[in-house]
Every structure is written in C-alpha cells, then in structure tokens.
C-alpha cells in the first residue's frame, strides 16, 4: 500500500498537531517528513517571525507559495503546511492535485491550549489571541474543507491513536488519483 500511496499533505490551524502527526505518520509510512515552515526557514536562513517582521505577511506568503509548489512535487513525502497556506488558491490547487490532503480540524479551545504561550507564532502576538484564533478559524475552515480529501478532528485522542486512524483511512487511497472534496468521507 505505501508504495502506491501519493504524498500526504497535512493542513489545519496552528496547534492542530500537523507537525506531531506528520512526524509519526512519516515514520509509520517510511517516508520523509517536511514541515513547510521549517523548509522556508532553512531556505532563507531566517525564522518565520523575522520574515513576518521584515517582509510582512504578504512577503511570507509569497515564499510559502514557492515552497508549497516545490514540496508538493516531491514523491512520497509527508508534508505539514503552515496554517495559512490554504489562503492562496494556487497553494490549494498544488496540494489537492498532487497528493492526499488531510485536514486536522482543531477547535479553538484546543488551539489556545497548544499555542497560548508560543512566542514563535507572529499572528498571536496580539492582546486577544483567542479572538485571532476564532477569526482565523472562521475564515480558513471552509478552505481547509475545500482542499481536504480526509478530515480528522484533533484534540480528543493521543497522537499515535490518531495516526492509526489516519492510516486506516489512507488504505482506501491506492493510486495517485485524487478524490474530489465532495466525495470524501469524514
């Protein structure tokens, strides 16, 4: 099954567990794990917060689109994207057409618990991070759903258990033909 499975791309809000689940999934599948934010940092020699501070969100998003284009062309990887990657229609097309997209759907309370004290998240360095997370979720949730082939709720079980559930769902994908979002199972 693993050899026939296309690359797997994880999308979802910050704090959904994309990196944690991605690493575990890659290990189970015997694949390379890539985090798009880490990739951008390694290509630029600067961290995401610095890029946001110097180039603004628009500058970061341009870099992100180039990275998503490059990474989604790699075979048999597990990719964790940044939470805002789906804001760009070009990114959504790259993701949806080049692999299996898994939306890790984390409620705002889960996001808050996991990100509240994380100073490396530029968008949350505001007086009311809960409102920021709620607003981002409201805007981005429809886009995550649009691009996703599989939707998995997070924050209710252990990461290893989630990976086992995800592996079961991935078994139905035995060729590189993507399933349209309206045909997916939750």
UniProtKB/TrEMBL annotation:
<keyword id="KW-0418">Kinase</keyword>
<feature type="binding site">
    <location>
        <position position="61"/>
    </location>
    <ligand>
        <name>substrate</name>
    </ligand>
</feature>
<keyword id="KW-0479">Metal-binding</keyword>
<keyword id="KW-0808">Transferase</keyword>
<dbReference type="InterPro" id="IPR031322">
    <property type="entry name" value="Shikimate/glucono_kinase"/>
</dbReference>
<keyword id="KW-0460">Magnesium</keyword>
<keyword id="KW-0963">Cytoplasm</keyword>
<dbReference type="GO" id="GO:0005524">
    <property type="term" value="F:ATP binding"/>
</dbReference>
<feature type="binding site">
    <location>
        <position position="140"/>
    </location>
    <ligand>
        <name>substrate</name>
    </ligand>
</feature>
<dbReference type="GO" id="GO:0000287">
    <property type="term" value="F:magnesium ion binding"/>
</dbReference>
<keyword id="KW-0067">ATP-binding</keyword>
<dbReference type="GO" id="GO:0009423">
    <property type="term" value="P:chorismate biosynthetic process"/>
</dbReference>
<dbReference type="Pfam" id="PF01202">
    <property type="entry name" value="SKI"/>
</dbReference>
<feature type="binding site">
    <location>
        <position position="83"/>
    </location>
    <ligand>
        <name>substrate</name>
    </ligand>
</feature>
<dbReference type="InterPro" id="IPR027417">
    <property type="entry name" value="P-loop_NTPase"/>
</dbReference>
<comment type="pathway">
    <text>Metabolic intermediate biosynthesis; chorismate biosynthesis; chorismate from D-erythrose 4-phosphate and phosphoenolpyruvate: step 5/7.</text>
</comment>
<dbReference type="InterPro" id="IPR023000">
    <property type="entry name" value="Shikimate_kinase_CS"/>
</dbReference>
<dbReference type="GO" id="GO:0008652">
    <property type="term" value="P:amino acid biosynthetic process"/>
</dbReference>
<feature type="binding site">
    <location>
        <position position="19"/>
    </location>
    <ligand>
        <name>Mg(2+)</name>
    </ligand>
</feature>
<feature type="binding site">
    <location>
        <position position="37"/>
    </location>
    <ligand>
        <name>substrate</name>
    </ligand>
</feature>
<keyword id="KW-0028">Amino-acid biosynthesis</keyword>
<keyword id="KW-0547">Nucleotide-binding</keyword>
<dbReference type="GO" id="GO:0005829">
    <property type="term" value="C:cytosol"/>
</dbReference>
<dbReference type="GO" id="GO:0009073">
    <property type="term" value="P:aromatic amino acid family biosynthetic process"/>
</dbReference>
<feature type="binding site">
    <location>
        <begin position="15"/>
        <end position="20"/>
    </location>
    <ligand>
        <name>ATP</name>
    </ligand>
</feature>
<dbReference type="GO" id="GO:0004765">
    <property type="term" value="F:shikimate kinase activity"/>
</dbReference>
<feature type="binding site">
    <location>
        <position position="121"/>
    </location>
    <ligand>
        <name>ATP</name>
    </ligand>
</feature>
<comment type="subunit">
    <text>Monomer.</text>
</comment>
<keyword id="KW-0057">Aromatic amino acid biosynthesis</keyword>
<protein>
    <recommendedName>
        <fullName>Shikimate kinase</fullName>
        <ecNumber>2.7.1.71</ecNumber>
    </recommendedName>
</protein>
<comment type="similarity">
    <text>Belongs to the shikimate kinase family.</text>
</comment>
<comment type="function">
    <text>Catalyzes the specific phosphorylation of the 3-hydroxyl group of shikimic acid using ATP as a cosubstrate.</text>
</comment>
<dbReference type="InterPro" id="IPR000623">
    <property type="entry name" value="Shikimate_kinase/TSH1"/>
</dbReference>
